[in-house]
Amino acid sequence: MNTSLMIANRQTFFGPGSLRELLPLLQGNNLPTLLFCGQSFLQGEAWQALESRLAPLLTGMEIVRHEASPQEIDAWVERWRGKVHRVVAIGGGSVLDAAKAFATMSQHPLATLRYLEKVGDMPVTGETLPLIAVPTTAGTGSEVTQNAVVTDKKDIQVKASLRHANFVPDVAILDPDLLKGTPDNILACCAVDAFTHLFEAYLSSKGNLFTRQTALSGLRAFVHAWPNLNRADQAGDEAREQMLLASWLGGVSLSMAGLGIIHGIAGELGAIRDFHHGEVCGRLLLPFLTLLADEENAQQQALMSALVEELFPGFTVPPARLLMAWLKDNAITPFWEAPPSLSEEEVSWVLARANSKNALVNYSEAQQRFMIEEAYRIA
Q1: Can you say whether residue 109 is alpha, beta or left, with left for phi > 0 and alpha for psi between -120 and 50 degrees?
Q2: How many angstroms separate the CA atoms of 247 and 252, rounded?
Q3: How far apart are CA 99 and CA 35, in angstroms?
Q4: What is the pLDDT, as a whole number, of residue 67?
Q5: Cβ atoms of 285 and 192 closer than 8 Å
Q6: Is residue 123 within a helix (H) or strand (E), and if so which, with residue range?
Q7: pTM attached to this predicted model
Q8: Burial class for 14, CB neighbours closer than 10 Å (0-12, 13-18, 19+)
Q9: Alpha carbon 94 to chain centroid distance?
Q10: What number is the average pLDDT over the span 108-130?
Q11: Is the dihedral of CA 196, 198, 200, 203 positive or negative?
Q12: Contact, 335 vs 283, CB < 8 A?
């Protein structure tokens, strides 16, 4: 039996309006503070309501427009090292990961690439600045994970993490009101990322009763939320709250049990193309479910039957096919349509580097190619 370890935030504030907890947290310990955020947050109602009181508490601000590169992180460190002693991150997964990476690298002497998984030659020490994470999307779970994802698409083409238990943000503020007004495609793609974290952790070879029950709790929240994410009524408010919970539980689950083949492919694809990570996971999820329906691994099939019985009692359709049909039938937007194209050279590049991670089955290159070719147009 595998042993599981849960590492989470010291404090987690959850619920509509919980963003109000940010000001007392900053005022109660007056440290020089750097804000990382996205441009969309600065254009939204939450910033307009907070700016007059929050801005005086900040030493500076950095706007994150995409997944941070090692060079961008190094530039932030050069600009702010020694000048700030706390970080606040308000935004989607890219914003939170950028802030986590900065908080870490500001306490390390060498360039980011030296510490990065896959390519680095130095271990991180665990030294980092205190960080308050406020997600404005429900998908990555970065507000509760141990890793900060860094992406270099130009020079060495790698998507990898800085990882240490100390990198889990000290405080997470989960306010579903911040999801209001998010475009349908972003809502759906982020949500399917959360689903994939939970689903792959549930099926992980590193899983046990504790990790699977955690993932199952998140999957229940996802099922309640998925059909109503974009509604403007009480059902929509409840759905966004449930999805924020699913996302947080997804971050906890992946930290304990790891991920599988979908992320084994998606991480490599993200190193060479500017696709939304959640959309990549969603496009790969559907053909993976096709593979799963025919997979004969006894433990995996037993887990699937137990999962679908929990989520859809009395099911009669084979579990993987039922799950795929339900996801598509209840999606607020058909994220799987109009697939982008990949060249055969790109497919080969990804396949040379992809792996099954912690899946119960070691998926062959032919099976991985099937997933990619079902998810994308190969030009």
Answers
A1: alpha
A2: 9
A3: 8
A4: 94
A5: yes
A6: none
A7: 0.97
A8: middle
A9: 9
A10: 96
A11: negative
A12: yes
